[in-house]
């Protein structure tokens, strides 16, 4: 089954509204002719409105970096799916390792956030991945299995087909250390096999991004792998030139 490549930039806590707008204005002409990949940028909440406006009419889509599961209520500092939907975002990153590490995100809260995003018609980009200690201890598959089992509990095969997964080995995020294409493919293949067990044929439609120090120099060989369907990009998405080059190399 042909899966369309999806490359998403996770800006993390970078770019004010005016800086985000300027980045998208610079990016638009550089990727205007890209039809073979879905392009997404995920700014901080405060920059979303400006970025949605700047991206209007282009092939650049916008996502959030988190989402809360409740519809509304006493959740100081949180943002609901409905609030996000109204800003014009179409995607929501869920369960990024930085949220798991610093903000107490668990597989159970990931699951609640996925359900809220789906209910609002947003496409979840669900992050999973092992730490260096877990990889070195031979626990990668066990960790991924429990993240999939807990995070995707009660999700139907129809819903799963529209969810994007991002496999991000935590040891490769922001470190400059990238998994080799072979190592990444082996893990992506494991993830797809688990998805097949859980969701049957729908697993073939699920796009699985690789994330962790993906850059213009390595995006081609990573995305060329059979089960790698794009990337979730941190550092290299913060400059229009490098993000555009990474995207073009990935689909060349
Ligand atoms: C990320 O934060 O999702 C990420 C992959 O970051 P980087 O590309 O900087 O490693």
In short:
The protein is an alpha/beta fold and 252 residues long.
**Amino-to-carboxy terminus distance:** 19 Å
Unreliable segments (pLDDT under 50, ≥5 consecutive)?
none
Task: Please provide the count of β strands.
Answer: 8
**Total DSSP helices:** 11
Class based on secondary structure composition and strand pairing: alpha/beta
Helix content percent band: 40-55%
> What ligands does this structure carry?
phosphoenolpyruvate
Calculate Rg over CA atoms. 17 Å
Describe the structure.
The protein is α/β, with parallel strands linked by helices. The protein has one domain: Alpha-Beta Barrel (TIM Barrel), CATH 3.20.20.70. The protein is 42% helix and 16% strand. The chain has eleven helices and eight strands. It has an eight-stranded parallel β-barrel with strand order 1-2-3-4-5-6-7-8, surrounded by six helices. Helix 1 (17-31) runs parallel beside helix 2, helix 1 packs parallel to helix 11 (240-251) and helix 7 (140-151) packs across helix 9 (181-199). The two termini are 19 Å apart. 44% of the residues are buried. The protein binds phosphoenolpyruvate. Phosphoenolpyruvate is lined by residues 10, 168, 173-174, 211-214, 232-236.
């Amino acid at each position: 089954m042909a899966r369309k490549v999806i490359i998403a930039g996770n800006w993390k806590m970078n770019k004010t509204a005016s800086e985000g707008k300027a980045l998208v204005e610079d990016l638009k002409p550089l990727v205007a002719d890209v039809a073979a990949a879905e392009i997404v940028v995920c700014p901080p909440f405060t920059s979303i409105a400006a970025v949605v406006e700047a991206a209007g009419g282009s092939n650049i889509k916008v996502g959030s970096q988190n989402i809360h599961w409740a519809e509304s209520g006493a959740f100081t500092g949180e943002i609901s799916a409905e609030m996000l939907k109204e800003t014009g975002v179409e995607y929501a990153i869920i369960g990024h390792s930085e949220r798991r590490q610093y903000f107490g995100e668990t597989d159970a809260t990931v699951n609640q956030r996925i359900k809220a995003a789906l209910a609002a018609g947003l496409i979840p980009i669900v992050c999973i991945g092992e730490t260096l200690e877990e990889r070195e201890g031979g626990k990668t598959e066990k960790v991924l299995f429990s993240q999939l089992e807990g995070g995707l509990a009660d999700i139907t095969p129809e819903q799963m087909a529209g969810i994007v997964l991002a496999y991000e080995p935590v040891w490769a995020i922001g470190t400059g250390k990238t998994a080799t294409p072979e190592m990444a493919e082996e893990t992506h293949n494991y993830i797809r096999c688990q998805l097949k067990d859980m969701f049957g044929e729908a697993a073939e439609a699920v796009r699985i991004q690789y994330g962790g120090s993906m850059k213009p120099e390595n995006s081609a060989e990573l995305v060329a792998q059979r089960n790698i369907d794009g990337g979730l990009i941190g550092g290299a998405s913060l400059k229009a030139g490098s993000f555009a080059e990474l995207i073009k190399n990935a689909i060349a």
